[in-house]
Structures are given as C-alpha cells and as structure tokens.
Amino acid sequence: PHHSLKQLPSHVMERVKELHDFSQSHPDEAIAPLAALLETYPQVPVLYNYLQAAYGMTGQEEKAQAIAQDAYQKHPDYLFAKTNYALFCLAKQKPDEIPEIFDGKFDLKLLYPQRDVFHIDEFVALSSVIALYYYAKGNRKDAEAYYQKLQELAPDNDMTQIVYRHLYSNFWQKVLYRAKQKLE
Predict the structure, then answer these.
(1) SS3 for 91?
(2) Is the pLDDT of residue 4 over 90?
(3) Per-residue pLDDT tens digits for 65-75
(4) How many angstroms separate the CA atoms of 44 and 35, rounded?
(5) Is residue 107 a contact partner of residue 95, using CB atoms and an 8 Å limit?
(6) CA 132 to chain centre
C-alpha cells in the first residue's frame, strides 16, 4: 500500500480498502463516501485515484478529469497521478505534454531510483501510457515494444487490451500481428 495510507487511523484505512473494492462493483455509490474521505484526507493521493476511477466508470468524464488534474497538481510525484493525468492529455490530443509529466523518464526505475520493487499495476500504468504516447506521436516501433512488454507481463489487463485496440485497430493490422506472433 502507498505510504500515505499508513498515516491514516486504522479504522479509516479499513474504510478506504472497503471503498476501493466497493468502487469496482458499485462506483456510483462509492463516489460520495470517497469524496468525503478525500476532503478530510487530501494528503492521501490514493483517494484521488479511487475517486477519479469511480467517476470514470460512471461516465462522469469531466469530474474524473478534474480529479486527475487536481491529483497531479497536489501530488506530482505519485505515479498514478502522473499516469491518469497523462491519459487525459492523450485524450485531449496533447501528447507533447507527456515527456514533461514524467521528466522524460519512461522507466519506473528511472522515475523512482530509490525503489527496487514495483507492483504490476505500476508497470501496467506507466507502460500503457508510454505505448499510447508513442502511438500518438507516430512512433509505432516503440509503441509496439511497450505493448510487447505489457503482453508478456499483463496480457489480461484492461490497459493492455486498450493499447492493443489502438495499435491494431483495423483488420489487416490484426492479421499481420497474429501472423507475426505465430512466426515467433
């Protein structure tokens, strides 16, 4: 868990865990309690992430974007604040902002040199954003390289599938990709 969660009273930390799980199955009902917790504990970047996801899952894109931008402004070193904000930049056709968000470091170890272990969700978040960034910039080779890493380590992850749909959006791209896979 993120170190900011450890600062919370144990009963609040339990509530955060419950709301995370609840937000996955009932995001519309999790929004109000998550927003209340965020108002009380704005120093906990995880809460921004959960609330932004709940807004996104309920189709409230403007609110999700506002939370992502707020999280990035208040917690610019938090990886998920960076990746969520970067995804909104990509959605707004502003890929040139991506290098600045990550200080030109497209690798977890470069971003966080004091760490040696990363969660798979951190890898997926960063790798998928960078793959989509390279795709948006017309650099298919690097986009596919990041996709291959995602495919190896997290083939069933939703973000891996999103990257796949971007890279191989038409029939012939899919046919060529599958043929290449069979040859390897």
Answers:
(1) helix
(2) no
(3) 999 999 999 99
(4) 12
(5) no
(6) 12
Return the exposure string of 62-100: e unless at least 16 CB atoms fall within 10 Å of the residue's CB, then b.
ebbbebbbbbbeebeebbbbbbbbbbbbbeeeebeebee
Contacts of 152 (CB under 8 A, 6+ apart): none
Q: What is the pLDDT of residue 28?
A: 94
CB atoms within 10 A of CB 170: 7
Between 176 and 136, whose confidence is greater? 136
- Rounded CA separation 69/81 (Å): 8
Q: How many CA atoms lie within 13 A of 106 on its CB side?
A: 16
Identify whether the C-beta of residue 37 lies closer than 8 Å to the C-beta of residue 14.
no
Provide the whole-model pTM.
Answer: 0.86
Question: pLDDT (tens digit, 9 = 90+) per residue, 39-76?
Answer: 999 999 999 999 999 999 999 999 999 999 999 999 99
For every residue of 125-176, DSSP letters joined together read HHHHHHHHHHHHTT-HHHHHHHHHHHHHH-TT-HHHHHHHHHHT-SHHHHHH
Phi, psi of 166 (to 5 degrees): -70, -50
d(CA 28, CA 59): 10
